[in-house]
Amino acid sequence: MKIFLAGAAGVIGRRLIPLLVQAGHEVAGTTRREERTGSISALGAAPVVVDVLDAAAIRAAVARARPDVVVHQLTDLSGEDFEANSQLRIEGTRNLVDAAKEAGVEAMIAQSIAWLYVAGETPATEDDPLDSSLPPYAGIAALEDAVAEMPRGVVLRYGALYGPGTWYAPGGAIAQRVKAGSLRLAPAWTSFVHADDAAAAALAALDWPAGPVNIVDDEPATTAEWLPVYSAALGAPTPGNAGKHAATTGRPVSNAKALGLGWKPQTASWRTGFADTK
């Protein structure tokens, strides 16, 4: 198949290109930066320099590529600019969906997040509602609604990504906070997924039916559980306690649907994944 990969130079995109090429697909991969085209080519994709916020440019780019599937892995988080990331989810996804529909593309696979479910102790499934009071909701709701307009729109609700190139890598934003001692043990839920497993899910999703799918590992955990393990892997001091009256936030997330579709995380738990942090 011909694949148009939006966000080819990102954490998932860099991992996904080789998987797509090895599976026999022809890949056109986008970046906003000319200097990244060499690395995209080296991975086996044809680079496309385009800004998804430029509606006319992205329409032209998709039309030229004539893809069978558009894979949307765009984010704008390298500088922790959450407003820019929300704009990309809202306007960028709108432009990408419109371009795909205009070009007659039948399927889109898009990156979403798994930590917007309403709070609760039981693992959230894809049928549970998202919490509209949380800051990322507007961008995520716009993204998922737009992708649902496609004849077959698959939304991958990724857990917290870790591994090389992510915020949890030794030089990443979360690692820096841990080393600075600014994170505390708390009963806040996180469901993780290694970036390699997230990319593998995007490949598998080429054959999945429409709808959202949680892409998380097998062991949701509270900060009180995972932070000491992660801190030790970084060689950072043991974090302090948030206090015995700290309220539980977030919710564990179920990966049962993804498992039923044939995906299985190779790193089943952050416990083993964090041990490889270097």
TrEMBL record:
Keywords: Lyase. The keyword Transmembrane does not apply. It comes from Actinomadura verrucosospora. Gene3D superfamilies: NAD(P)-binding Rossmann-like Domain. Residues 3-210 form the NAD-dependent epimerase/dehydratase domain. Transmembrane segments: none annotated. This is dTDP-glucose 4,6-dehydratase. Its EC number is 4.2.1.46. InterPro entries: Epimerase_deHydtase, NAD(P)-bd_dom_sf, NAD(P)-dependent_oxidoreduct. It holds the Pfam family Epimerase. GO terms for molecular function: aldehyde dehydrogenase (NAD+) activity; dTDP-glucose 4,6-dehydratase activity. It comes from the Bacteria. GO terms for cellular component: cytoplasm.
